Amino acid sequence: MLxxxxxxxxxxxxxxxxxxxxxxxxxxxxxxRLGLAGSVRNLQDGGVELVxxxxxxxxxxxxxWCHRGPPAARVxxxxxxxxxxxGVVGFVVLR
Length: 95
Description:
Layout: E1 7-17, H1 23-34, E2 37-42, E3 48-55, H2 56-66, E4 74-83, E5 91-94
Parallel strand pairs: 2-5
Antiparallel strand pairs: 1-3, 1-4, 2-3
C-alpha cells in the first residue's frame, strides 16, 4: 500500500522527436526499474503522453528522464499535470 503523502501521479506530454525512437518502450523499462505504475502512448500530433504513479522520488526521477528520453529522442518540451493517485497497477505501452 502506498502512503498518500509520499506518492505522486503525473501526466506528462512530451514534445519533440519522440515517436519512432523507442521512447515508449524505453520509458516502460525506466518506469519498471523505478517501480512505477502507469502507461505511455503516442499522440496523433507527434507527441507522447506518459502517466506515472508511485513513490514521489521515483516519479520525479522518471519526469527528469523524460526531459532527455532515450538516445535517439530530441525532447523539446514536457508539459506536466499533477493528479490524484488512482492506484493503477503495472506500467503498459498503449498502442
